[in-house]
Each structure stands twice: as structure tokens, then as C-alpha cells.
Input
Amino acid sequence: MSRHKPTGMRTQVARHSILFIAAMCMIYPLLWMIMSSFKDDAVIFSDPTALPRTFDLSNYREGWTALRVSFTTFYANSFLISIFAVIGNLMACSLTAFAFARLEFRGRKIFFALMMATLMLPYHVTLVPQYVLFQKFGWVNTFYPLIVPKYLAVDAFFIFLMVQFFRGIPREIDEAAIMDGCGPWRIYWKIMLPLSTPVLATAAIFSFIWTYDDFLGPLIYLNDINLYTVPLALRAFVDGGGGQSLYGPLFAMSTLSLVPVFIVFLAFQKLIIRGVALGALKR
Amino acid sequence: MFLLPWLIGFFGLTLGPTLASLYLSFTDYDLLTSPRWSGLENYEYAFFHDRRLGNALSVTFTYVLWSVPLKLTVALLLAMVLDRSVRGVAFYRATFYLPSLLGASVAIAVLWRQIFGAQGLVNQMLFLLTGMKGPAWVAHPDYALTTLIVLAIWQFGSPMIIFLAGLRQVPQDLYEAASMDGASGWRQFRKITLPLLAPVIFFNLVFQTIEAFKAFTQAYIVSGGQGGPVDSTLFYSLYLYEEAFANFRMGYASALAWLLLVIIAIFTAIAFATSKYWVYYEDEGR
Amino acid sequence: MTTTYSRRQFGGILGAALSATALSGTAAFAQAGAVRLIWWGNPERDKRTNAVVDLYQTKTGSTVSPETYAWGDYWQKLATQAAGKSLPDVIQMDYRYIFEYARRNQLAALDEFIGSELELADYDANQLASGVVDGKTYGISMGANSMSHVYNKTVLDGLGVTLPDSTSWTTDDWVAIGKDIKDKLPDGMYFSENMGILEPRLQTWVRSAGKDLYTPEGKIGYDLEDLVAYFEFWKMMQDEGLTPPADVQAQDSGKMEESMMATKQGVFNFLHSNQLVAMQNLVEDEIDMVMIPNSGPNAGQYMKPSMFLSMSETAADKAAAAQLMNFFITDPDANDILLIERGVTGDASIRERITPGLTETEQKIINYLDIVGTHVSPLPPPPPANAGEIDRALRPAWESVAFGQVDLEAAAKDFYENSIRSLERA
Output
């Protein structure tokens, strides 16, 4: 009987059920965390699946002010660093990527290889020399070590990512522009950037989330609790050395800390999806 | 001119520490006192005397070989499904990205033990379905690494987003033309999607491989920083970290880091060399 | 001035950005005269320590810049700061690391301050001695501590079991009780956690045989046979079902809430005495502490410092740093806040002052240490460099036995020889 039905309907249903089951697998741990954020510490580990008996917000209240400085400060710091990091990464990395993808200059291949190599060295061994360097600048215990490097395109991931996408844009487009008398700056600004909205949005998402989630950088460079970021503050809830941790407030604050990244993700994914009218330009 | 920021950044901020770590790899450096030159001693120890290094390498290779292909396949499949306009697609995209948002927070560690522990969710399901009692997966040397591979696959959000962005650059009119010619879905995938997506696939492959070789945080958090049980999740980076900061052997750790760099560089070079045959760039002309 | 510099360098938007961060940066620098204090801990300790910091600031008018991190992050941060020669002024130190840091000239010798800024006349001499490295004092003990066996009193009472006098019981007595009650325990609960991986437990084991982990010369202080016997004992416990199977036990990665006691899978657990309050908070049943049964003729336990306060060699104002340390250790009001969270203070008058106000669980700690104090052997020789590495290596070594991957004697031999190699490598 199904033979008579339009196949579109069946695939739709199948697709939805697959997606839905997969989505549940994805979301279960998060639900667990949110549920736990309403529970008392003693209950969190003894009944892993059940819903909380009451929606008790005390973990949120307690967590927000559990440390010497309230989370308001930590959020302000995290936002400040993340927003400037996003701007920096987008500007500096897209410029660099444009150079690698489109311009001819001496040593391009060598520079590109060097840039790739910086991705491969485990960061733990450059941590100490870098710390010493920033200390010489007098930048320890400020946000500079966490922001300034982003404006100098030190994150090879974004450069490499953008190079791959820029190379996907047909060269005929910029050749046409050169004929019209455009210099490289105009090509970069008027053609490359507008045509690369999906990858720029992707880079913006990653840049925001990774900076926002970064733990090691703030741990090493920030001393004053007034400068702490959210992840650094969250670590203070757990005792890894055999003392008592505050799991209820930890989960409450972790849940809250997801909200900004989630909003950023939703906002920028639209830009990815909207895509570009590349096809129209192309032929 | 366009390279200026990168050049400043590279020579000012990156190169110095990188060279410093190369120098340190030839020294005996305990972080608390100044480094002492020791020539090739660190490398000699790594090659001939270090008993844990072999294990760390094999753990890391196993992890790379399993997690990278599986993660990328899942990411690509879901990206293609989510690229179509299914109703509620924005919701699915968001939920699929959620695990990656959690990143390596402490919550993940607790959670993973809740799911793969002796009384965890997996064993509860297993008991319901088969009546068998499963082991404590996270804490068993035969399975602990597998749970970390599962964790890696589960956090497929980043490559998925990149695939999505890539799919958005594929001109839709090509599909329309192909449909008119009567090409099947699979054929469209092979003839249009794959070739046009190749630069992005290549990117994800290279980057995920590099990241998998350097994998640290998840293993650190799930195993409480110990790489246990019985060193079965002692990733290369975890071992390096332990040597550097717990055993005060930053010199030796630097040597380990440079060995890893060489290993990764070989793999990356192979990928770049073979990319000529399967990665096609729009800017190269036809 | 930072602002104009960055403006010139990076242009309008960025300049504004950086001046915003510079503001918060200068806010931090404004405290340049502050004494920097750093400790590892947990929310409870942070609350108490911060309260003392506030009290100190109001009492003296000087400023303190407090920093706190979780144990694992703490040592990475400290090592990086040491490498950059910018350690905080006053540092909470661990017994294991104090030798590493002191011998590498990162810590200031405190002897010149004792008697002036540091008023330690009332302080227990044995406790003070624990902070001495190579003849000089590098740390003031923040409290005494000892290892213990903690047990679920509610469960044992329910079974009608009363424990013998723990100052004289032996491992045989302990095992006999275990065999006796093993079948009466609820499903999934074992007599004890398996302590094979715990170096302090190994230490009490070899000390009761009259040896120790290390000799004063920094060599391994026990014999391979001792280690084999130790592994055999815990393997027997596991095989007899007195301790959990290897994979269940291995779920405990060292966090208290993962321990067999907290997860209701064990009646007995190894614990340091200052952790009793935290453990009691995790367990609904009543718990109590007893001494660790000896496997040989000698006393295995000793009193050890829970943690120290040390001073950085690079501290800008050492006298000010010493004053802050003194406040933590001797000020009555400060200790009304700190109580015994870091261990039982060695200052007799303070101890007398705070004891009546303690909770029942805290009283148990004081009573326990009173008993232990009369049945201990002296402090062991300081651990040699690389002792930390050997400590960590015990875990995989024992686990390879527990999971049956390696022959017991081979694993013991391997660990023993690797330990010697580690010491030689230092």
C-alpha cells in the first residue's frame, strides 16, 4: 500500500525519526546537566536519570555568588575577551588567508608550511617561553596576552580554513575586477569578504566559542580574581585533590555559561546557511 | 602587505617560544632552575630508554586511526542531511552542535562516568536488552580508550559546521542540471558534492588528524589526569604534560613535543602530497 | 600611556578595545603593593580563607591579593610562575613539593623571621620540624594530619560488629572481620576499597616492617619482597571479594565523590584525617575513623603536616609576607574562621580555644589525632627528587596486577626497578 503513497512523505518521516533519535542522544547529557543543576549535591550521583523533585533555584543563587567575586564580573570579562578575539581573528586571519590564497610573493610556500607547523607543536611546551615573553612585556595579569595575539593572526587554524574557502572562489571573478581597475585591497574588501560569509560566520562561531571556553590561557596569564573568566571560575567549584566539590552550583553555573555560546551559535549559523549567491556570479 | 599582521605575530609571538622550546629540548630543564645544556641526551632517552613512550604512541595512533575517519564520516553525513530544508532544521543543527559546545568542561568528565560507569546508562540499557552485566567501561583497560573515541565522535560539531559552510558554496544549479539529466542521488554526491567539497574535506581531514595527535583535554579530564587505567588512555600529549609539569622535566617534554611535530608533519606532508590527485580547487582553472 | 601606544599601533577600534582592557589591567596593577597569596582548595576552604584575608585587611589596613585554583591546575600555574620568576609571595605548599621548590631556591628560608614576625613559641616543635629542608625552615605547617581508615559506622552497627582497639589491631584482625561480614553486606557493597594503588598505604605497610619508602640518602627504603607481599595482600582481598573488582575500583580517579565509600560500595576507606568532614558530607550514614591495622611489629603511621605556608624567594616585601603568614597561623580570630579545615593546628593555645566550638565530626578528628599521637613512629626522611613520579607509577603498576594483565611478581619487580631508575635519573 505504501507503494501508492508519495515517497517524499516516507522519506520525510524516516529522516525526521533518524534526526530525532540522534538529537536525543546528543542532547541527553545536556538534559542531565540541567536536571542536576536543580538537585541537591547528595542526590546528583545517587539517582542519575530521574527528574528533579522540585525546580529548586538555590544552586543558581548560591553558585552566582559562591566565589569571592560574583559571576557578573566573570561574564563581563569573558565577553570582553571573546568579542575582541572574534574581531581580531576575522580581520587578521582573513587578510593573511587572502595573501596566501591569491597573492604571489616570494617564499609563499615556505611561509605556508611554517604556518602549518605552528599547528603541530603541542602547546604545553611553548607555554612557558610564551609566558616569559609576555611577562617581559609586562602583560601578565592583564587581558593583553589573550587578545593581542588574535590581531596578529597567530591562530593558523583560521588562516588555513579561510585559505581553503577562498580557493573555492573562481579566479575569473577577481580577474574581471582587476580589469575594472581594482587593486588587491578592493578585491579583498569588495569581493572576497562578501563572497565568504559562510566561512567568516564559521570562523566567528569557533573563534567566539574557543576563546570563551579557553581555560589554559586565563589560568596562566590572569592572577587577580577580578579578571577571571567564566571557565576559570567554574574550576574553583571542584576539588580534584580529595576534598569536597560543589556539584549542584557547578552544574547550575555550567548550564548558564552555555547560554551565550548557544545564542552566538544560533545567530551566526543563519549566516552560514544563508550562504552566498556564488552560483549566480559564476556563470 | 596583507601578511603584515601574520608576520609580526609569527616572528614576534610564535617563533620565539617555538625556537625556545626547540632549544629546551636539548637541555635539562626543571622549570625551577635555569636550563642546562645536555645535547642529545633527551632524544637518546626517548628513542632507547623510555618505556612508557611506546605505549603512549600506540594509544595515540589507535585514537587517531579510529576517531578521525569516524568523526568525519558522521559529520559529513549529518551536514548533508541538515543542508536540506527539513522542517525544524535549525533545531537539529543546534542540538547536534551542543556536545561540542560542552567542550571539555568538568561536566563532561562527570557525565562520561555516569554513562559508561559500572551502573551507568550504557550498562542499564545492556541489562534491559540482554540481561548481561557490563563492566565499568571507562575504568577498564580494554575499553577505556574506546569510550574516549566515542567521546571524540560524539563531539563532531566543528567539522559538521565546516562541512555545512562548504556545502553552501556548492552552486545549487549544478544539482538542478544533474537532476534534469536523471542522475541519482548517489551519483550527484559522487560527481558534484565530493569534488566540490574536496578542499573542505581535505581541510577537515588534515586539521582533525593534527588535533587527534595532540589530543589532551578530554583524556585529561575523563581519567583525572592519569591516563589510566594501566596507562590505557595515556595519550602522547598527556604523557608529555606529565613529564613537563608533574615530573619537572620540561627539557624532555620539549624533546617529546618536537618528535610529535615530526610525526604529524610526515602525515600532513603525505596528505598534501596526495591532495593533488583528489582535491580540486576552483582557482586552478580546468 | 598604554592607551595611546595601542591606538597608534592598532588603529581606532582596536585602540578603544585595548584601552577598555587596559582599564581593568591598571585596576589590577593598582594593587601592586598587595601581598599575593595563593592556595589550592575547594569552595569551603576558599570561603574560610577569603574571610581571613578580609579580616586581615580590616585589621591591618594592608592589602592582600588572593588567588585560588583546583589542585591539578595549581601546580601547573605555580611551575609556570616559578619559571617566570613571579611566584606569589605567600604560597600554600604540599609536603611532596616543598622539597622540590626549596632545594631549587624558589622558597625563602623562614628562620630569620621566626621569633620576630612569626610568633611560634607556642607551636608544636614536631610540627615545625616537618617544614625543615636541609637544616632550614621553608614552611610552617598549617595543621597536623595522619592517615586513617574511615568506616561506615551505621553499617557496622547494624551488623552488630564492634571493632577492636585500633591502636593494636593487625591486618589479620581486619581481614577476619571482613570475611565475617562479607556475606551480610548489602548487594554491591564490599568490605573495603582496594588500597593497592595508594602510596601512603604502602608506606604504612613497609614502616610496620621497620622500613620506609626512602632512606635518608634518598634510595628505596624497602625490599622487593615487601612490595610483593603488599601486592599479594591486596590481590587476595580482591579475589576473596573483600574489595571490589578491578574495574569498579578503577572508577575512583582520586576525587572524593568517586571513592567506594561515597558511592556506597565500601565499608572501609583510606582517608587523611582532615578529609573526614568532607567525606561525612557526602555520606548519609555516620562514619568514623580508626588507625590503620599494622601488618608488622612496628607502628606504621606517623603525624604529617597537612600542608604548609611558604614564602617565595622573590617576594617583594618579605616582612609583610611573614606578617600575613603569622596571621593565618597564630591569630585567634583568624583561627576561629579557619578552625581545623586544613588540619589540627600545632599552636596549643589556639587549639584549646577552638576545640569547644567544633562540630561532632570535627571533634572526632581531634580525638583521633590524640590517639594517633601516642602510637606513631617519627616523621620519615624527606622524599628524594622524582618521588612524585614513583608515587604516580604505583597506580598503573597495581592496576596491571588487579586486572590480571601481568604476573604479580613481574609487576612488582618492574615497578621496583623502575623506581630505582627514576631516582637515578633525578
About this structure: Residues 66-282 of chain A form a domain with the MetI-like fold fold (CATH 1.10.3720.10). Chain A has 15 helices and no strands. Chain A has one domain: 66-282.
